[in-house]
Amino acid sequence: VQLQASGGGLVQAGGSLRLSCKVSRAILSTFVTTDISWHRQAPGKERELVATSYSSGRTMIAESVKGRFTISRDNGKKTMYLSMNNLEPEDTAVYYCNARFMSGAESWGQGTQVTVSS
C-alpha cells in the first residue's frame, strides 16, 4: 500500500487549499475499513494530528483548526482530502496523510508542504 499526497503550496493568509492523498495498491474493501487521518509538522515542532476520518463515518477535527478544516474521503477513488479554509501563518507545516488498517498496520504518505504567508 502506498499513500501519495498532493495539493500543498504557497497561499496568502485567509486563502484556501485542498490536500489529496490517494491510497494505491489497496483493494476497495480494505480502504473502506481503514481509518484515515492528516497530521502536520511545523519546523521545530512535533508532528500533530489534525483530523481523522474513521471507517465508521465519524470524523474528528483538532481544536486548533476546527471550523476551518474539513476531512473527507471518496471510497470509490480510495482518496482522502483535507479542505483548508481561512488559512493562517500558523498553519504552515508539512502535511502528512496516514492510513491505519484493521490489521493494526499503518502507512504514511510522503508529506506535502503548506506555506501560508502573512
Q: Could you characterize the architecture of this molecule?
A:
The protein has one helix at residues 28-31; strands spanning 2-6, 9-12, 17-24, 35-41, 48-53, 59-61, 69-74, 79-84, 93-100, 106-108, 112-117. It is mainly beta and 118 residues long. The strands form 2 sheets. Strands 2, 4, 5, 6, 9, 10 and 11 form a 7-stranded mixed β-sheet that branches. It has a 4-stranded antiparallel β-sheet with strand order 1-3-8-7, with no helix packed on it. The model has no long low-confidence stretch (mean pLDDT 94).
Comma- or semicolon-separated keywords:
1 helix; 4-stranded antiparallel β-sheet; 7-stranded mixed β-sheet
Explain briefly what this protein structure is.
With 118 residues, the protein is mostly beta strands. It contains one helix and eleven strands.
List the helices and strands and how they pair.
Elements: E1 2-6, E2 9-12, E3 17-24, H1 28-31, E4 35-41, E5 48-53, E6 59-61, E7 69-74, E8 79-84, E9 93-100, E10 106-108, E11 112-117
Parallel strand pairs: 2-11
Antiparallel strand pairs: 1-3, 3-8, 4-5, 4-9, 5-6, 7-8, 9-10, 9-11
Radius of gyration: 14 Å
Which structural class matches the secondary elements? mainly beta
Could you give the count of β-strands?
11
Form type: globular
Determine the number of helices (DSSP H or I, runs of at least 4 residues): 1
Distance between the termini: 37 Å
Largest sheet data? 7 strands, mixed
Q: Beta-strand level of the residues, as a percent range?
A: over 45%
Portion in helices: under 10%
Low-confidence stretches: none
Mean pLDDT: 94
Instruction: Encode the helix/strand succession as letters.
Output: EEEHEEEEEEEE
